[in-house]
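re: ur question from yesterday

yeah so i grabbed the chain u mentioned. its 289 aa long if i counted rite. heres the sequnce exactly as i have it in my notes:
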Amino acid sequence: MSLYRFYVEGCSDASDKIYISGKDYNHIKNVLRLRVGEEIIVSDGTSRDYHCRIAGYRDAGDASSDSSAKGRGGHIDESSGEVEAEIIDITDNSTELPADIILFQGMPKADKFEHIIQKTIELGVHEIYPVMMKRCVVKLEGGNGNTDKNGFLTVSSKEAKKVQRYNSIAEAAAKQSQRGIIPEVKSYISFKQAADLASEMDMVLVPYESAEGMDHSRSVIAEVKKLCETMPKKPTVAVFIGPEGGFAQEEIDLLTDKGGGIISLGRRILRTETAGPTVMSILGFALDD
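ran it thru and got these structure tokens back, copy pasting raw so excuse formatting
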């Protein structure tokens, strides 16, 4: 049985112990009911794993807590307590793909998007952007085309809270699949913003029903593998998936102009919630050692 995994920001600074607080403290102690002496994996979110043994539980008000060795920048969550975890071993996480796959997903209905987040993270995606495309069925509250200082679409607080929920789903999926990182679900962007971001990446893949055929598609996937073998750093690969209504022709034209490789996923027409996980499965099989 695999060990339970938890993510602790800043734990890479710890020398012999990591302290886990907040919701993970409650989950470890009161939900999983792990006992002193049981082992867990703690990740710093940068592909490094800390194999730990639970040394004890401390209430939030315990004055004996060592504030110099906290896993979250020395802060104890006063609403709960903390788990004291003794580091047994430190290893590099081997679950990440040799390329960073960035998914630009045409925004579908919320339940479909949650499914896409969960499954593509289990399959190795590095980052996810929800993209408002011409044929999206979903309309955002406040998504009037204006952007904030970071280039994301300006939306209502309700829509912003949805992104928080999406990232909670991402964290749960990363834990379940033993990922070394927690892939981030970004805020909403326009199609033009997505195309501009993708143009800075090493390769762009666009599954589309009018692709040349499977032989061409296999050769494009082989190019991704070659990038992984020849580049001195991890290549970045953008994957564009259309929404329920599919891509508009002008969107395909723009991606092609920016160097996008049009590929086929087979003779069958896939739903938007199936296409992303399918691409990730193909890339995982092709790229994993």
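noticed a couple things. Residues 63-79 have pLDDT under 50 and may be disordered. also The radius of gyration is 21 Å.
anyway ttyl
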